[in-house]
Amino acid sequence: MTFSPPSKQRIAFLDQAAATYHKQLDGSPAAEYLRKRGLSQDSAQSFRLGYVASPLSGHERYAGLLAIPYINRQGTVAIRYRCISDHDCKEIDKHSKYAREPGDDAKIYNILTLTLPVPRIAICEGEIDTITAWQSGIPAIGVAGAQNWKPMFNRLIRGYTEVITLADGDTAGLKLADAIAEKNEHATTCQMPHDLDVNQYYREHGQAALLEKAGF
Ligand SMILES: [Zn+2]
């Protein structure tokens, strides 16, 4: 397979989409969702989170979803969309909690963290947990599920004195942590208490508790 960088047009389109949906965030159901999850307006701004109120052409299927741009030095390289309804997404036929565009492969979320001069970083499962850790003062990257941690990503986390995977408090939560620990001697796992993810832990116990638990 030959390497082809994302085209300039594609990045320009995604930048425009991210900016458009970010403008539609204020006062939207997505803003309310973020507020309930304890994510600050500052975070919504830095991560350019958005709401798809009026979708751009081709994005009709994402209407009503939270828009989560994946941003690197070139710009927006992907946007993932998350259902923000109160229902249990698994209970609904042919519906999933997350949507991504065709051809959008596994990527690291908040990859710009890797440009920071810090000795230790955290790895989270999911974008919301990554933002939660970040706004708490933890330099964090994330992937959307254990199956999205690709072997080539191990190269990106060499050179740190320690990488700490902040794992969900269930068996599935350890999958990502174990996949990372298996290939990285400097990786450790910090698992949240039973049935809590990083965001829930933060909401129940607060920022100071999360920092202490994660060791940052
Ligand atoms: Zn749903």
List descriptors.
216 residues, alpha/beta, DNA primase DNAg catalytic core, N-terminal domain, Dna Topoisomerase Vi A Subunit, Chain: A, domain 2, 2 domains, 4-stranded antiparallel sheet, 4-stranded parallel sheet, 8 helices, binds zinc ion
Strand and helix layout:
Elements: H1 8-23, H2 29-36, H3 41-46, E1 50-51, E2 66-72, E3 75-82, E4 98-100, E5 120-125, H4 127-135, E6 140-143, H5 153-156, E7 162-167, H6 173-183, E8 187-191, H7 198-205, H8 207-214
Parallel strand pairs: 5-6, 5-7, 7-8
Antiparallel strand pairs: 1-2, 2-3, 3-4
Bound molecules: zinc ion (ZN).
Zinc ion (ZN) binds at residues 83, 85, 87, 89, 95, 97.
Structure report:
Helix 7 crosses helix 8 (207-214). This protein is 32% helix and 19% strand. The protein has 8 helices and 8 strands, in the order αααβββββαβαβαβαα. It has 2 domains: 8-100, DNA primase, catalytic core, N-terminal domain (DNA primase DNAg catalytic core, N-terminal domain); 111-214, 3-Layer(aba) Sandwich (Dna Topoisomerase Vi A Subunit, Chain: A, domain 2), CATH 3.40.1360. It has a 4-stranded antiparallel sheet, with helices on both faces. A hairpin with a 2-residue loop joins strand 2 (66-72) and strand 3 (75-82). The chain is globular and about 45 Å long. By secondary structure, it is of the alpha/beta class. Bound molecules: zinc ion (ZN). The site of zinc ion (ZN) has 6 residues, from loops. Zinc ion (ZN) is lined by residues 83, 85, 87, 89, 95, 97.
